[in-house]
Amino acid sequence: MSPLAAAARPAPDSDRPCRTFLAKGMEAEKKAISLLSKLRNELQTDKPIIPLVEKFADTDIWNQYLEHQQSLLSESDGKPRWFYSPWLFVECYMYRRIHEAVIQSPPIDDFDVFKESKEQNFFESQESIIALGTHLQELLKTIEDLDENNLKNEFFKLLQISLWGNKCDLSLSSGNTISQKTNIINSLEHFRPFILVNDMEHLWSLLSNRKKTRGKGTVSRVDIVLDNSGFELVTDLILADFLLSSKLATEVHFYGKTIPWFVSDTTIHDFNWLIEQVKHSNHKHLSKCGVDWENYIKMGRWVYHDHIFWTLPHEFCAMSQVAPDLYAELQKAHLILFKGDLNYRKLTGDRKWEFTIPFHQALNGFHPAPLCSIRTLKAEIQVGLQPGQGEQLTASDPNWLTTGKYGVFQFDGPL
Ligand SMILES: O=P(O)(O)OC[C@@]1(O)O[C@H](CO)[C@@H](O)[C@@H]1O
Ligand SMILES: [Mn+2]
């Protein structure tokens, strides 16, 4: 039963305003459902892609983009349609239309249709989350005394945890939760052969050299373009905590989505909700994490940013034109980590590149700062492989590009 329907229990006679409110809620819910079934019908029957109608911060940019897509077609092709348009564009459009159905239906216009599944993913991964929180708190006890090599090993561990955390997105499973039930720390060695491009050393050199050479009071800023909420977000926050505690960074900036997106992507509400849950955990190590994380935010050492660009269909090489303010913000980072598969598709323009094309080339001019994609492979695109590597993988594991079994740390930037 939906949250609104569940709330629609019989109200006492004296409770008229409440009853009126519920009736309005039920009407709104019916409207949203009818708009969503219209959307499903358009999609299933390959109708033309239609402009957005409801005024929202990004409506004009979206409609310009649709016009641009139309201009790419020859006259005889008519309008862009669901089955024959680029996958990246149509997929983003679908999530934007889901949002439109909701904002057209006040008073439920700020309802997150994916909230329940994101929260479920967090609760079902509890055991693993507790193991990570405990690992971090134990590590922090001795972090000041670790020598270079040990610190590097710990950094690499937490990077890999954040990588494999990306297996847990909900969009591939139609929202059915894929949670993390085992202690991922014990599995890192087993997963290592599945890292196809491993530029972790570059990340270490960049951050540790800067730590050694930066003056007192100078900033080392790492930006993380977040992907999924739930278990993956916990792995990212653990990494971000380590970056501050080890002094490899002095500030971490996060970027989330302004609207519910690809089922499990992180919004500001998810970000705050998760930190609050962690803080109120009855596990002492985990709740300590939550308390520290809230303090980092209060002190401005962790900063969360919103920008509509992340929920547009544009590839990232268009950012400097479409969202120059966001590009300028990213330029302030010393390192940008892009989490997840969708970010990889947008970094590389979702094109059918040869597997051996250098990552730098596929970025097509997008170089705001040194950057690294941390991504498990779920879409048929991969660049920067060794000659023959892609072909070998295809021969041994035909679905290697789409199952999330393989991952990359792919770096671009001066060394
Ligand atoms: O970015 P994420 O969360 O790693 O993955 C999102 C994703 O699973 O959603 C799409 C399938 O609907 C694919 O493009 C992509 O692989
Ligand atoms: Mn995602």
UniProtKB/TrEMBL annotation:
Any one Gene Ontology molecular-function term assigned to this protein's record: fructose-1-phosphatase activity
Name of the protein described by the UniProt record: Sugar phosphate phosphatase
EC number(s) on file: 2.1.1.-, 3.1.3.-
Gene3D superfamilies xref list: 1.20.930.60, Uncharacterised protein PF01937, DUF89, domain 3
Described purpose of this protein according to its UniProt entry: Metal-dependent phosphatase that shows phosphatase activity against several substrates, including fructose-1-phosphate and fructose-6-phosphate. Its preference for fructose-1-phosphate, a strong glycating agent that causes DNA damage rather than a canonical yeast metabolite, suggests a damage-control function in hexose phosphate metabolism. Has also been shown to have O-methyltransferase activity that methylates glutamate residues of target proteins to form gamma-glutamyl methyl ester residues. Possibly methylates PCNA, suggesting it is involved in the DNA damage response.
Domain notes per entry: Subfamily III proteins have a conserved RTxK motif about 40-50 residues from the C-terminus; the threonine may be replaced by serine or cysteine.
Keywords noted in UniProt: Hydrolase, Manganese, Metal-binding, Methyltransferase, Nickel, S-adenosyl-L-methionine, Transferase
Catalytic activity: L-glutamyl-[protein] + S-adenosyl-L-methionine = [protein]-L-glutamate 5-O-methyl ester + S-adenosyl-L-homocysteine; beta-D-fructose 6-phosphate = dihydroxyacetone + D-glyceraldehyde 3-phosphate; beta-D-fructose 1-phosphate + H2O = D-fructose + phosphate
Biological process according to GO: DNA damage response; methylation
Lineage: Eukaryota, Metazoa, Chordata, Craniata, Vertebrata
Keyword DNA repair: no
Family to which this protein belongs: Belongs to the damage-control phosphatase family. Sugar phosphate phosphatase III subfamily.
Sequence intervals crossing the membrane: none
One GO cellular component, as annotated: nucleus
Organism encoding this protein: Pteropus alecto (Black flying fox)
Cofactor: Mn(2+); Ni(2+)
Pfam families xrefs: ARMT1-like_dom
Domain Damage-control phosphatase ARMT1-like metal-binding: 26-393
